[in-house]
């Protein structure tokens, strides 16, 4: 983990950057185009979007206009709940690709485990993977029992599980299960939507390293072996978030951050989501 180009290797051999830009709630058009452009110019290689964010076109435009070769970038999108099922997922994928203007995706995820549908949706992702349209497939917001359901029918195991993860929700059992099953853990909302930025314990650690609280949290992610994708639309913040490769948290500091866990969510619980 030396810089923004540093990668983890997924269980199928595909290399995925440890750090990327999330674009949840970033407006389609100029705002998302600028955000992605600034990130790529700052050295980011990974961009994470989703059909439901309604900004895939802007993401694709910024990618197309960048000087970075497509094969050096890692682009993720997700199939939304209302499009789940076998045929409808294949159709949703085509629509996403049309909006993005790309020939292939690096990672495609099931956004939420919609009861009665996510198994068929997984079969559609396996087809996309076998057809070479996606380099890696995975899930988002899956608990252990959802993953076990997939294992029962899967010809290809999920390569990634992207879930809400931050110091107040460290998902210890899920992290352990994913590691044991070679599923790369990825954090969304790593900064708990800004709710952790005035935490005293984190501030103390940040001061000791002359870093921001955000940088300490994102470094904690990486040292826990978790891929992280903080969102920002401000250039200075995009650069600051990525400035985490020149310091290391001690074992004691890591433990202090681990102890902040309260199993507290800012998003929905996947078992009680209004699908």
TrEMBL record:
CDD domains: AKR_AKR5G1-3 (cd19157)
Catalytic activity, EC: 1.1.1.-
Keyword Protease among record annotations: no
Molecular function terms, GO-annotated: oxidoreductase activity
This protein's UniProt keywords: NADP, Oxidoreductase
Superkingdom per UniProt: Bacteria
InterPro entries referenced in this protein's UniProt entry, alphabetically: AKR, AKR5G, Aldo/ket_reductase_CS, NAD(P)_OxRdtase_dom_sf, NADP_OxRdtase_dom
Residue ranges occupied by any NADP-dependent oxidoreductase domain in the UniProt entry: 30-262
Family: Belongs to the aldo/keto reductase family.
Designated name of the protein: Glyoxal reductase
Organism: Sutcliffiella rhizosphaerae
């Amino acid at each position: 983990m030396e810089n923004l180009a540093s990668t983890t290797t997924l269980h199928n051999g595909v290399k995925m950057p440890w750090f990327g830009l999330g674009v949840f709630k970033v407006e389609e058009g100029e705002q998302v185009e600028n955000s992605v452009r600034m990130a790529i110019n700052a050295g980011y290689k990974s961009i994470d979007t989703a059909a439901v964010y309604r900004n895939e076109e802007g993401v694709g435009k910024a990618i197309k206009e960048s000087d970075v070769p497509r094969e050096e970038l890692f682009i993720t999108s997700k199939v939304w709940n209302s499009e789940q099922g076998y045929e409808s997922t294949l159709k949703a994928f085509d629509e996403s690709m049309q909006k993005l203007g790309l020939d292939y995706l690096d990672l495609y995820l099931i956004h939420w485990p919609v009861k009665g549908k996510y198994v068929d949706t997984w079969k559609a992702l396996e087809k996309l993977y076998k057809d070479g349209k996606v380099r890696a497939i995975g899930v988002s917001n899956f608990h252990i029992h959802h993953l076990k359901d997939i294992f029962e029918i899967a010809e290809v195991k999920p390569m990634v599980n992207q879930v809400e993860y931050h110091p107040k929700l460290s998902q210890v059992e899920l992290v352990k299960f994913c590691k044991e099953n070679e599923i790369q853990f990825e954090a969304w909302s790593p900064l708990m939507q800004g709710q952790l930025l005035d935490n005293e314990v984190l501030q103390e650690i940040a001061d000791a390293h002359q870093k921001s609280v955000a940088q300490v949290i994102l470094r904690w992610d990486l040292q826990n072996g978790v891929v992280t994708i903080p969102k920002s639309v401000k250039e200075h913040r995009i650069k600051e978030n990525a400035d985490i490769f020149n310091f290391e948290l001690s074992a004691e500091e890591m433990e202090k951050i681990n102890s902040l866990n309260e199993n507290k969510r800012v998003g929905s619980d996947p078992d009680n989501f209004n699908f």
